[in-house]
């Protein structure tokens, strides 16, 4: 059985979420910061009149802060609500086979372990399946 | 009478819809005769009509639907099976109902419609007198009806065509008499048949046509879209303001106007008179009165006052609770009342009116009032406050403790009230929709609970402020006033009580909360200038220190994700004119977070002292007008004090005006009005008085102080003065505020008094229900 995944990169890693969860992909937008919010909340954005919470995926994954370039935005539907995810770059939509899936290695620890469901072994690289719900903090 | 009419109108709309449903059901029934489901649906429809007709005393309609209902009940329960004769009588019944409704629509009575024959026929079926056999006749009846209908239709068409032809022919030549006669004959009955339904209603649209029911979801989505439009409008108006293109500016102004009207219109579709809630209360009061052995008269004022339906729903329970409370606790028994020199019958008054973009609902009883000492005792007994805490409160403040969770004053727990889950729940419910509640009571005279409810939840007017480079919105509802401090003032006028910062606002200490501290941000303003937004919620007052005030505008409230809501500082977000997102501050949560619980109630009384009892206390504001002269202005005539940049004064003819909150504020310089000369600076100190939607600004040199009653008066006066008085060993001139205001705006009083007069007429008691 094969599924389609939308890929994106974060600090050199390729991550992916199911294509059906993705609503749209945008360039970076002006964000309004939310004081006192959890660190992963990068701010609020205006998506055609709708106020969305922007989550910087680097924070929950324990990656170092983005040093250069503007992040890209992937709008995903989590629990029925759209949320903007900030990523480094947007990749292709890839077709993966369930047989190429392996759960995260036991050596993967820390925050990332909770959020990475496992890896799809593509010929040229590994694509890490992200648990979007958890990454957003729901 | 009007009320009854309204109910009848509603009944008619509903019944017409029900009849349409009935028709559909019968059609379905033909396809699957004996479907219990359909029969049950028909039964419910008839049952509904019966119920209401009985209530409205339409006896014939009730009699007819009653027997019909009996018959349907038997069919539904399978005691009878559907046959053609039964279908016939049922259809006859529905027709009878239609006729009766038509008659009621004409003049509110059942007219001359006869129902006895149909009732008898149905009764016969019920009694089993009619052979309930053979499904044979049904198709026959149907075909007969069809052919008749066809025949009539044909006749009509023919007749019309012929008569048209005739008319044409007539104009040309004398037609043959035979043809004419033949044509005329069918025309007459055909026309009568065709016109019959229209004759009684005449030119008036029938009830069923003049109103439609709309899905609430559709209204909600319309409301959302209008919200978007308002945002878009804000953006365009803002952009257009920066352009030189006159046409664009004009178009944006039109857009502005249209969007506002559309917004108002859509909001209106969601508005319902508060009477929808109130109409259930007379019964509640009567039953409760009987249960408690009290005589209660319920008066309702302003029952046409409208508010958003979602709010109406939210207010329902709190209001019912307050009414029950008033009857149970508030009003005394007849004997006690007579002993206290009151009439045996207690009066419970519900009053609703619009005020400042809010709906105010008051529940007033003329009962025994609330004894603050009992509240104190109760608070102590339940350990909710210590004696020391209570000692610091005055009686008005003690009264508000009634909203403390876990508080109940009822001596005995009755099944009416007294379970201690009362007023605090009421308060929580009202606050959850952005409303406020306050209570006033005079021992022996009665108690008033006052609810203030926003008109709608979706769009609120708010003040946009800046703090640490970000913009935030504060709902206007919570905003009492703004105080601007320049850098020297800011340094000197913020004082400390221990660790807490305070500001002396007209002699009262106002606790200060720095927004940048709350949000854990670095203060964004280096020049030392500050603005204090004086906020109030739940009767608490505090000053929120912000960097600057940007503007006031209507904003559309957008919900936040639960993650952000749980921070407890923001009530929502909004999109500003430039498309950026701004957070809406939850003033109530801010107050709760930043102020100690027991210190809070204290502010309430001070605020009340300021605003509500000002007239009684006769407090006056002292203002300097130059040359060392000071005038006194009654505090009741002071709505707001503002600092205005002198460059903002513009001219309209010989008059000076200031643009203020989206309007034009007529302005008068008191020094000129009173022939003095004050020092001119870059900043003007302005006293704003607002009444009936009109405002004027009085420019003074400085605000000196607020003092209580000035008793040594003299009638030595001058132009524009009422006299003089001695305050603190100094002669103060008493300003004739009326003449000063008229000097600024000659039409001020004529317009506002007309508004006031109209208002008082509208608030006459309209309904007295024993």
UniProtKB/TrEMBL annotation, chain A:
PROSITE patterns documented for this protein: CHEW
Q: What SMART domains does the entry give?
A: CheW
Gene3D superfamilies listed in its UniProt record = CheA-289, Domain 4 (2.40.50.180), SH3 Domains (2.30.30.40)
Any matching Pfam family: CheW
Q: Which SUPFAM superfamilies match?
A: CheW-like (SSF50341)
| Residue ranges of every copy of the CheW-like domain listed in the record | 2-138
Q: Which PANTHER family match?
A: CHEMOTAXIS PROTEIN CHEW, CHEMOTAXIS SENSOR HISTIDINE KINASE-RELATED
Q: What is this protein called?
A: Chemotaxis protein CheW
Q: Which organism is it from?
A: Angustibacter luteus
From TrEMBL, chain B:
EC number annotated for this UniProt entry: 2.7.13.3
Q: Which residues form the CheW-like domain?
A: 459-596, 617-746
Q: Which Gene3D superfamilies match?
A: CheA-289, Domain 4, Histidine kinase CheA-like, homodimeric domain, Histidine kinase-like ATPase, C-terminal domain, HPT domain, SH3 Domains
Compartments annotated for it: namely: Cell membrane
Residues with PTM Phosphohistidine? 47
Keywords attached to this entry: Kinase, Phosphoprotein, Transferase, Two-component regulatory system
Q: Does the keyword Kinase apply?
A: yes
* Catalytic activity of the protein: ATP + protein L-histidine = ADP + protein N-phospho-L-histidine
Q: What class of enzyme is it?
A: transferase
- Which InterPro entries does the UniProt record give? Bact_Chemotaxis_CheA (IPR051315), CheA-like_dim (IPR004105), CheA-like_homodim_sf (IPR037006), CheW-like_dom_sf (IPR036061), CheW-lke_dom (IPR002545), HATPase_C_sf (IPR036890), HATPase_dom (IPR003594), His_kinase_dom (IPR005467)
Q: Taking every annotated instance into account, which residue ranges of this chain make up the domain HPt? A: 1-104
Occurrences of domain Histidine kinase (ranges): 192-457
Could you tell me which CDD domains the record lists for this protein?
HATPase_CheA-like, HPT
Q: What is this protein called?
A: histidine kinase
Q: What is the lineage of its organism?
A: Bacteria, Bacillati, Actinomycetota, Actinomycetes, Kineosporiales
């Amino acid at each position: 059985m094969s599924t389609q995944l939308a890929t994106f990169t974060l600090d050199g890693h390729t991550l992916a979420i199911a294509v059906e969860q993705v609503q749209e992909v945008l360039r970076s937008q002006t964000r309004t910061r939310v004081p006192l919010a959890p660190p992963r909340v990068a701010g609020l954005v205006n998506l055609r009149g709708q106020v969305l919470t922007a989550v910087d995926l680097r924070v929950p994954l324990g990656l170092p802060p983005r040093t250069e370039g503007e992040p890209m935005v992937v709008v995903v539907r989590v629990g029925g609500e759209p949320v903007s995810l900030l990523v480094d770059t947007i990749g292709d939509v890839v077709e993966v086979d369930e047989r190429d899936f392996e759960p995260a290695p036991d050596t993967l620890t820390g925050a990332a372990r909770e959020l990475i469901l496992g890896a799809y072994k593509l010929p040229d690289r590994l694509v890490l399946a992200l648990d979007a719900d958890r990454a957003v903090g729901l | 009478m009007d009320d009854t009419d309204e109910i009848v109108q509603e009944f008619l709309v509903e019944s017409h819809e029900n009849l349409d449903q009935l028709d559909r059901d019968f059609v379905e029934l033909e396809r699957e005769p004996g479907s219990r489901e359909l029969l049950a649906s028909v039964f419910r429809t008839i049952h509904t009509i019966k119920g209401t007709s009985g209530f409205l005393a339409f006896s014939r309609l009730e009699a007819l639907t009653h027997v019909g209902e009996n018959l349907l009940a038997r069919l539904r329960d399978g005691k009878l099976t559907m046959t053609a004769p039964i279908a016939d009588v049922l259809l006859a019944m529905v027709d009878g109902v239609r006729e009766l409704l038509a008659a009621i629509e004409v003049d509110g009575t059942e007219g001359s419609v006869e129902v006895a024959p149909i009732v008898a026929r149905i009764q016969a079926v019920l009694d089993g007198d009619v052979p309930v056999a053979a499904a044979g006749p049904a198709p026959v009846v149907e075909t007969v009806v069809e052919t008749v209908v066809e025949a009539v239709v044909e006749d009509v068409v023919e007749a019309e065509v012929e008569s048209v032809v005739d008319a044409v022919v007539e104009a040309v030549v004398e037609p043959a008499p035979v043809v004419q006669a033949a044509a005329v004959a069918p025309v007459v009955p055909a026309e009568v048949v065709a016109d019959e339904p229209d004759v009684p209603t005449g030119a008036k649209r029938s009830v069923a046509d003049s109103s439609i029911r709309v899905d609430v979801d559709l209204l909600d989505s319309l409301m959302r879209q209008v919200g978007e439009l308002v945002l878009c409008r804000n953006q365009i108006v803002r952009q257009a303001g920066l352009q030189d293109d006159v046409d664009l500016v004009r178009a944006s102004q039109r857009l502005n106007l249209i969007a506002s009207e559309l917004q108002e219109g859509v909001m209106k579709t969601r508005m319902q008179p508060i009477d929808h809630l109130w109409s259930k209360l007379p019964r509640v009061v009567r039953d409760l009165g009987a249960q408690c052995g009290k005589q209660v008269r319920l008066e309702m004022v302003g029952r046409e006052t409208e508010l958003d339906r979602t709010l109406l729903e939210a207010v329902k329970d709190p209001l019912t609770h307050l009414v029950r409370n008033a009857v149970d606790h508030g009003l005394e028994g007849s004997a006690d009342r007579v002993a206290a020199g009151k009439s045996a019958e207690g009066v419970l008054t519900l009053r609703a009116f619009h005020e400042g973009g809010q709906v105010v609902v008051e529940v007033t009883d003329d009962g025994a009032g609330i004894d603050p000492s009992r509240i104190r005792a109760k608070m102590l007994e339940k350990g909710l406050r210590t004696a020391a805490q209570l000692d610091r409160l005055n009686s008005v403040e003690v009264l508000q403790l009634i909203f403390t969770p876990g508080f109940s004053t009822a001596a005995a727990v009755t099944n009416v009230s007294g379970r201690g889950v009362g007023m605090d729940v009421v308060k929580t419910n009202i606050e959850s929709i952005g409303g406020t509640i306050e209570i006033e009571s005079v021992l022996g005279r009665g108690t008033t609970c006052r609810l203030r409810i926003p008109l709608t939840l979706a769009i609120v007017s708010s003040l946009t402020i800046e703090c640490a480079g970000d913009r935030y919105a504060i709902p206007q509802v919570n905003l009492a006033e703004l105080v601007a401090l320049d850098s020297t003032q800011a340094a000197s006028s913020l004082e400390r009580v221990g660790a807490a910062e305070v500001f002396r606002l007209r002699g009262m200490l106002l606790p200060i909360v720095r927004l940048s501290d709350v949000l854990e941000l670095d203060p964004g303003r280096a020049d030392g200038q500050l603005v204090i937004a004086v906020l109030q919620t739940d009767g608490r007052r505090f000053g929120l220190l912000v960097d600057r005030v940007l503007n006031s505008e209507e904003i559309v409230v957008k919900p936040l994700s639960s993650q952000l809501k749980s921070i407890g500082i923001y009530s929502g977000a909004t999109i500003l004119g430039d498309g950026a997102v701004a957070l809406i501050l939850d003033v109530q949560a801010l107050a709760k977070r930043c102020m100690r619980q027991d210190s809070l109630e204290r502010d309430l009384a001070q605020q009340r002292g300021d605003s509500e009892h000002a007239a009684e206390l006769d407090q006056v504001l002292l203002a300097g007008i130059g040359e060392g002269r000071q005038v006194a202005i009654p505090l009741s005539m002071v709505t707001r004090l503002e600092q205005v940049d002198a460059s903002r004064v513009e001219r309209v003819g010989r008059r000076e005006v200031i643009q203020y909150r989206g309007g034009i504020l007529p302005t008068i310089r008191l020094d000129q009005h009173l022939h003095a000369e004050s020092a001119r600076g870059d900043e003007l100190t302005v006293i704003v008085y607002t009444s009936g939607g009109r405002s004027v600004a009085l420019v003074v040199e400085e605000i000196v102080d607020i003092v209580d009653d000035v008793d040594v008066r003299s009638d030595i006066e001058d132009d524009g003065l009422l006299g003089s008085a001695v305050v603190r060993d100094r002669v103060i001139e008493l300003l004739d505020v009326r003449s000063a205001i008229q000097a600024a705006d000659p039409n001020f009083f004529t317009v506002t008094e007309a508004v006031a007069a109209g208002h008082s007429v509208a608030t006459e008691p309209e309904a007295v229900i024993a």
